[in-house]
Amino acid sequence: MPDASRSTDHRDYQRVPRVVTALARDTEHGVTAPAHSHERAQLLYATQGLMRVQTDGGVWILPPRRALWIPSGVTHHWTSVSKVTMHTIYVEPGAARQFGDSCRVIEVSPLLRELILALLDEPIEYPIPGRGEHLAMLILSELKAAETVPIAIPWPRDRRLVAVCSAIMADPGSSRNIEQWADEVGASARTLIRLFPKETGLHYRQWVQQVHLAEAFNRLAQGQSVGEIAATLGYASPSAFSAMFRRILGKTPQHYLTEWRQPLTQHPA
């Protein structure tokens, strides 16, 4: 049985004398965690539901079976886009260095998921040596082998670009072009074209495509068809949308739709 004394406060997991600790909590739709950071690195992961996470440098949409690696000390805040079942882990800084110093989305393999759930069945300060220690080491091994998903929405600082990016995020299917956005924020199209790679590292169309991919992941996880998503995002046809999706991710949207329509095996309480 899970440890009934487990805290749902992330602060209680930062200084436990264990390399890896695991937290579980349920969150209702629309809940926002204010900006904060952790002493430990974090794998932010929801086994059910959708989350939106933002740092000073980017935005990520996390459906089930994808998680965000957040290095220690990175300030972030998140919002539950639906009801969320969160099973997240914290890794002490020394062990976390091998996973890099930037945020990235990773694929959560079935084995990694089960290892996280199994660690949640152990006390927070699990015995050493023992089962919890073995699970922690296996989690680190799976993290090292985890595939990175190239979806990230770099976030600008220039106020004009922030206004444009915020509007696109709010309406990913908008048909406005960069000239129309420029008129909206009182800048020239040439200025915006120059600012996008300077501020985000991506050209305008590349940035919009990242927004489309994130929104597509969101909608695929909700069971929407490829045709519905393509139409919502303003693509001429499902095949045009699928071609963009596959070019960037190496897999078709149908691949993910099939995956998310398969129910996850329930973990016994």
Regarding quaternary structure, how should these chains be classified? single chain
Sheet-strand content, in percent, reads 15-25%
- The percent of residues in helical segments reads 40-55%
Number of helices: 10
InterPro entries: AraC-bd, Homeodomain-like_sf, HTH_AraC, RmlC-like_jellyroll, RmlC_Cupin_sf, Tscrpt_reg_AraC-type_HTH
Keywords: Activator, DNA-binding, Transcription, Transcription regulation
Protein name: Helix-turn-helix domain-containing protein
Organism: Duganella margarita
Describe the structure.
By secondary structure, this protein is an alpha+beta fold. The protein has helices at 93-96, 110-120, 131-145, 159-170, 178-185, 189-200, 204-221, 226-232, 238-249, 253-261; strands spanning 20-27, 32-36, 41-48, 51-55, 58-62, 66-70, 76-80, 84-91, 104-107, 148-149, 153-154. The strands form two sheets. The protein has a six-stranded antiparallel sheet with strand order 1-8-3-6-9-10. Strands 2-7-4-5-11 form a five-stranded antiparallel sheet. Helix 4 packs across helix 5 (178-185) and helix 7 runs parallel beside helix 10 (253-261). Mean pLDDT is 89; it is low at 265-269.
